[in-house]
Specification:
The protein is built from 17 helices and 19 strands. The chain has about 525 residues and is of the alpha+beta class. It folds into 3 domains: about 140 residues, 2-Layer Sandwich (Uridine Diphospho-n-acetylenolpyruvylglucosamine Reductase, domain 2), CATH 3.30.43; about 110 residues, Uridine Diphospho-n-acetylenolpyruvylglucosamine Reductase, domain 3, CATH 3.30.465; about 230 residues, Vanillyl-alcohol Oxidase, Chain A, domain 3 (3-Layer(aba) Sandwich). Strands 12, 13, 14, 15, 16, 17, 18 and 19 form an 8-stranded antiparallel beta sheet that branches. A 5-stranded antiparallel beta sheet has the order 5-6-10-8-9. The chain has a 4-stranded mixed beta sheet with strand order 1-2-4-3, sandwiched between helices. α1 runs antiparallel to α3, α6 runs antiparallel to α12 and α10 packs across α13. It is globular and about 75 Å long. Bound molecules: flavin-adenine dinucleotide. The site of flavin-adenine dinucleotide has 35 residues, from β3, α7 and β10. InterPro entries: FAD-bd_PCMH (IPR016166), FAD-bd_PCMH-like_sf (IPR036318), FAD-bd_PCMH_sub2 (IPR016169), FAD-linked_Oxidoreductase (IPR050416), Oxid_FAD_bind_N (IPR006094). Belongs to the oxygen-dependent FAD-linked oxidoreductase family.
């Protein structure tokens, strides 16, 4: 091996492991393993003694990664790079300090990394865009963080009707590339959100009314299994894994490429924008949302909306933003969306534009200083009374947090149609167990500045959503489904898919990950057991 600054760090790292019990047989096992990776015995000479077959061997894992991939492995000593990589996570709560950060630039490197972690029993986390707010889902305190920003291919294959997308991409790069080739894919609505997490968590898109969730449009997942083997999961090969990954998140392997079906769309042009409303208009908007779910969305599935009630005490502002969207760029207000315009927005940006422009607009609108963030969600059936109750409770609950520094609360209504759910019948099914009725996914997003307020903000959010769940039971509109991508760590996402699905997912895990590497070593996220 070439000597590099990284190998100088090895000495220090290995000395950290000197307290581990050593045994000839375990040292020999490590030496044999390292040799299998192409390292000579002199590369690890004098270091294998620290190997502890029962320990987490995290320092050894980081050392092997540094030896094999010096350009892709960052240790805390490399302050500026390390700090900027830690800061990729959207929420400050998720800015944990991994023992090392490994950013593979090829599938083969990612596979070697997984092999190392699995062999050495080292905890690891997988991060694509890092937009999960809870700590530990895509970040780790002691262990290896696989940070996938270098897996950023976007290739449009017109002949096969797919875009091959590295999971480390943000949707904005995907859309810009696709638009330049006159196609679109089904993905996130906000520019910087990551591909890997959104797709494996389901993926609600502006295009979902006709195309289903992003996961439904996956033609192929390229996956590194716990053994380090790389497989393609699709309709004809490893189809059980393909199904499981559509909502199964990080439970089965590390995904290194996702092939999404493309939709022809010249220059990516759509119709869309944001309408802004004031609190006195909320009841009218709520009626219009209900009517949209009962008629507009059914008769015109190419139309979509997402509405967020926002409290921004620092600006003394309370408002509602409502994105309107239509797949056909007609230039006039689509009849299915007219009712929202009739309420009289005080500002309106709707126009014909590329999807990337809308994704950027929403991002710019949502941009706040780097903050502590939390999500929590709930699904409820269509009910004007429920929707109005929720927005009233949001206002009355959150006045109590007006003095929390940096507080911003956003409470979002995302209408889900039966047609969206049914798309999976034609696309090989999905693990994500969405109720087959029109309903809404509520998502609460709280942002704040100081750790000292964590308990207050998180506790308030939990109590607020529990009250909503209680009300939904009272009104008979409880759906019991938690959408993975908007859920808090303590919400029973997998259980909400239903017992049968969970059993099937566990079966898939037993086939592809017998040693439960992605359950025991990848601790963050929503697990199967
Ligand atoms: C501003 C904002 C806007 C959003 N808009 C939408 C939206 O329009 N539609 C929607 O459905 N959701 C949306 N979300 C939610 C979003 O889908 C989730 O936050 C999602 O996790 C983001 O993906 P990511 O790659 O950034 O996630 P990460 O935080 O990197 O990962 C999320 C989870 O997936 C796992 N994972 C990630 N990549 C891989 C991989 N390659 N292999 C195996 N496991 C992996 C991680 O380990 C982690 O547990 C939004 C979130 C934010 C903050």
């Amino acid at each position: 091996m070439k000597t590099s600054t990284c190998s100088l760090l090895l000495t220090g790292l290995f000395s950290l492991g000197s307290t581990f019990a050593s045994a000839d047989n375990t040292s020999a096992a490590l030496e044999a393993f390292a040799e299998g990776l192409g390292l000579s015995s002199s590369d690890i000479a004098g270091r294998a003694e620290s190997y502890d077959a029962g320990g987490d061997n995290v320092d050894i894992s980081c050392s092997l990664l540094s030896l094999l991939f010096p350009e892709s492995t960052v240790l805390p000593g490399a302050e500026a790079v390390y700090t900027s990589k830690v800061g990729i996570n959207w929420s400050v709560r998720a800015h944990l300090t991994p023992t090392c950060i490994f950013s593979p630039n090829a599938t083969s490197a990612a596979a070697t990394g997984v092999k190392i972690a699995a062999f050495l029993n080292t905890p690891f986390a997988i991060r694509s865009g890092g937009h999960t707010p809870d700590p530990g889902a895509a970040s780790i305190e002691r262990g290896v963080l696989f940070s996938l920003e270098n897996l950023n291919e976007v290739t449009v294959d017109h002949e096969n009707g797919v875009a091959r997308i590295g999971p480390g991409n943000r949707w904005i790069s995907v859309y810009e590339k696709c638009e330049s080739e006159d196609v679109l894919v089904v993905g996130g609505r906000v520019a910087p959100v990551g591909v890997g997490g959104l797709v494996t968590g389901g993926g609600l898109s502006f295009l979902s009314g006709t195309e289903g969730f992003a996961a439904d449009t996956v033609k192929n997942f390229q996956v590194v299994l716990a053994s380090g083997e790389v497989v393609n999961a699709n309709a004809t090969s490893h189809s059980d894994l393909w199904w499981a990954l559509k909502g199964g998140s990080n439970n089965f392997g590390l995904i290194t490429r996702i092939d999404l079906a493309t939709i022809a769309k010249p220059s990516g042009l759509i119709y869309g924008g944001t309408l802004y409303f004031l609190p006195y208009q909320y009841p009218a908007i709520i009626s219009a949302i209900k009517a949209f779910q009962e008629k507009g969305q059914i008769e015109d599935p190419k139309a979509a909306i997402i509405s967020s009630f926002i409290r921004m005490p620092s600006q003394s502002a309370e408002l509602l933003t409502l994105q309107v969207f239509h797949q056909d760029p007609e230039g006039t207000v689509p009849p299915s969306l007219q009712a929202f315009f009739d309420v009289g927005p005080f500002q309106n940006t709707a126009s014909v534009r590329p999807l990337s422009s809308l994704a950027n607009e929403i991002y710019a609108m949502e941009s706040v200083p780097v903050a502590r963030q939390a999500f929590r969600d709930l699904s409820v059936g269509v009910s004007e009374e429920m929707y109005q109750y929720a927005v009233d409770l949001f206002a009355s609950t959150y006045t109590a947090l007006d003095n929390v520094p940096g507080f911003l609360g956003s409470f979002t209504y995302q209408p889900i149609s039966t047609a969206m759910v049914d798309v999976a019948n034609a696309t090989g099914g999905r693990a994500m167990g969405v109720p087959r009725v029109p309903h809404v996914w509520f998502c609460l997003n709280a942002m704040w500045a100081e750790e000292a307020d964590d308990e207050l903000v998180l506790g308030t959010g939990k109590a607020f959503m529990e009250k909503l769940a209680e009300k939904s039971r009272e009104l008979g509109v409880e759906e019991g489904f938690f959408y993975l991508n908007d859920a808090a760590a303590d919400q029973g996402v997998m259980e909400s898919y239903g017992e049968e699905v969970v059993e099937r997912l566990r079966g898939v895990s037993a086939v592809y990950d017998e040693g439960k590497v992605f359950q025991k070593l990848v601790k963050g996220g929503f697990k199967l057991w």
